[in-house]
Specification:
homodimer, mainly alpha, Arc Repressor Mutant, subunit A, Tetracycline Repressor, domain 2, DNA-binding
DNA sequence: TTGACACCACTTCAGCCGTAGTACTATGTT
DNA sequence: AACATAGTACTACGGCTGAAGTGGTGTCAA
C-alpha cells in the first residue's frame, strides 16, 4: 500500500474520470492506471481493494468541490436578502455543473452504493454532513429562510443539475438561469415583492 | 427477431431488474436471459443489439408506470386546492418509490445515455413529454399553480425519491411524508394559510 | 545495504458474443 | 389423416477480451 499523496490524488482524479466515462462497472484498477497514464499495477499498489477505491473516490469528490474559504467569506458580505440567496444558488449550480465528471461520478457512486453497504454508509454520512453544513451556514449568515428552505433548495437544484448534465435537451441550457431564479423565488416566501 | 409480445415484455422486465441490480454495464443478453429464466440466446433473438435493448427498456419503464386512467380521473374529483395537490404528490411519490428497481433502472439509463446518443435522444423526448403532460394535466384540472410550479415539484420530488431509494439514511423514512408536504406548501403560494 | 517505491511480464480466470445447429409446435395443404 | 413449412424455443461450441494477482527487476535515497 503506497503512500505518495500526490500520486494517490492523481489516481483518484483519474478514477473520477473513469467513473463518469465508463460507469461504475468500468472502474477497474487497470482502467485507472490507463487514465492516469501510469504503469499497470500502480492502482493496485495504492488501493487494497475495489471497495476501498470506490470509497476513496467518494471522499475525493468532496475534497475537490469543497468551497474555498474565499467563496464562503464572500457569502457573508453585503445584504442578506433573497437576491443574495439567488446569487449564491447560481454560484453553486454553476460551480457544481462545471465539474461535470465529478458530479456524474458521484451519481455512479450513489447507484453503486446500492450494492456496497460500506460505500452507502460513507456516502450517507458525507452527504448528511454536507446538507447540515449548508443549513448551518445559511442560518449563521442570517440569510432568509429556515432549514426546510435549504433542504428544498438542495433537492430542486440537485435535480436541475442532474437533468442538465445527463439530458440537456429536457431543460434547454438558456433556460437554466431563469429556472434557478424561479426556484429561489418560489421556495423563499418573498420578503419584498411577490411576483 | 422474435415477435411474441408477452415474452418480449417479460424480457424487458427482467432487464429492468438487471439494470437496477447490476448497473448499466451489467445489462447483457446473457444476464437478461438468466434473470428471465429463459434459455441463453433468447434475448439475442428479441433484440438486435445492446443499444436496442437499452432503448426498449426505457420505453418499457414508462409503459409500466403510466398512470392508470382511474388514478387520473380521481385527480379531477373534489376540490382543486393546495391540499389536493399535496395529496396527489404523495400518491406520485409513493407510486414511483414503490417501483424501486424501475426507478433505479431509469437512473442507470440516464447515466448510460451519456454514452449513447440514440438513447439520450429517446429519453429526452420521453421525459420532456412526461413533464409537458404533467403540466397540461395540472392546468386542465384547474389545480392551483402554473407551469413553473409543476416543474419545481417535478425537480424537488424527483430528487427526494432518488435520495430515498439510494441513500435512505440521509432523509429518514419517517420524515419523507412531511418533506413532501413541505415541498408543496413552499412551492405553492398558499391560498388560504401562509404557515 | 536496506527499504520504499516504480515498473513490467506472465499466468489464470471469468464472462460475453455470435452463430450454427437441433427440436418443438402450430398452421395450412393435399 | 399425413405432411410440409415457418416461426419459435433451446443448446452447444469457439473465440475473444479484459481483468486480477503475483512475483520479479530496476532505481533512488537514507
Amino acid at each position: 500500500m503506497r503512500q505518495n499523496p500526490a500520486r494517490r490524488a492523481a489516481l483518484l482524479d483519474a478514477a473520477i474520470e473513469v467513473l463518469a466515462r465508463e460507469g461504475a462497472r468500468g472502474l477497474t484498477f487497470r482502467a485507472v492506471d490507463a487514465e492516469a497514464a501510469v504503469p499497470v499495477g500502480t492502482a493496485t499498489n495504492y488501493f487494497s481493494s475495489r471497495d476501498e477505491l470506490f470509497m476513496q473516490v467518494g471522499l475525493r469528490f468532496y475534497e475537490r468541490l469543497e468551497p474555498d474559504a474565499g467563496v464562503l467569506a464572500a457569502g457573508l458580505a453585503g445584504p442578506r436578502d433573497r437576491d443574495r440567496v439567488t446569487e449564491l444558488m447560481h454560484d453553486v449550480v454553476n460551480r457544481v455543473s462545471a465539474f461535470r465528471s465529478g458530479y456524474l461520478a458521484l451519481l455512479e457512486l450513489r447507484l453503486e452504493s446500492t450494492r456496497r453497504p460500506a460505500l452507502r454508509e460513507l456516502l450517507s454520512e458525507r452527504i448528511r454532513a454536507d446538507v447540515d453544513a449548508n443549513i448551518r451556514y445559511h442560518e449563521e449568515a442570517g440569510l432568509p429562510g429556515d432549514a426546510t428552505t435549504v433542504v428544498l433548495l438542495y433537492m430542486a437544484l440537485n435535480w436541475l443539475i442532474l437533468e442538465r448534465l445527463t439530458l440537456p435537451d429536457v431543460f434547454p441550457e438558456d433556460g437554466i438561469h431563469d429556472l434557478v431564479t424561479d426556484v429561489v423565488e418560489r421556495v423563499l416566501p418573498g420578503p419584498g415583492r411577490s411576483g
